[in-house]
Amino acid sequence: MKQTYQTGVNGEREAEAYLCDEKGMQCLERRFRSRHGEIDLILRDGETIVFAEVKTRKSGVEGSGLMSVTPAKQKRIAQAATVYLMTHHQLNFPVRFDVIEIFQGRITYIPNAFQPGGVFYR
């Protein structure tokens, strides 16, 4: 198994523990995949469905993981989220897109990090 893959999996586990234990969310699904893209974590925060992108970095510059969630990546996440909501019959729930960076053991959590814009209507 590639080291970067395992680093990502470990970061996702750490992010899930943080969101569930510290923020009181409930994990619905991990590593959801569709032909449009992948969502690292799907959680429930009260009535809101949360789609979380996790970026784990062992080295480099703090914040580089957050900056790597480009508009193109946001669009793929939003399209995959639409597929999830449709296939799970949850279109009437509010949604939120969060980003979490784990850098050298520190967690930076940005709730409502981006809004997908018009991608839901294409």
Span between termini: 37 Å
Beta content: 25-35%
Strand order of the largest sheet: 1-2-3-4-5
Number of helical regions: 3
- Helical fraction equals 25-40%
Tally of structural domains: 1
Major sheet, described briefly?
A: 5 strands, mixed
- The CATH class name reads Alpha Beta
Q: Tell the overall outline.
A: globular
Rg from C-alpha positions? 14 Å
Summed over residues and divided by their number, the pLDDT gives a mean of: 88
Which series of helices and strands comes N to C? HEEEHHEE
Count of β-strands: 5
Structural class, from helix and strand content? alpha+beta
Give me the oligomer status.
single chain
CATH fold description: Trna Endonuclease, Chain: A, domain 1
CATH architecture: 3-Layer(aba) Sandwich
Q: What are the low-pLDDT stretches, counting only 5+ consecutive residues below 50?
A: none
Explain this structure.
The protein is α+β, with helices and mostly antiparallel strands and 122 residues long. The protein has a single domain (3-116), classed as Trna Endonuclease, Chain: A, domain 1, CATH 3.40.1350.10. 34% of the residues lie in helices and 34% in strands. The chain contains three helices and five strands. A five-stranded mixed sheet has the order 1-2-3-4-5. It is globular, with a radius of gyration of 14 Å. The protein starts with a helix and ends in a 12-residue tail after the last strand. The model has no long low-confidence stretch (mean pLDDT 88).
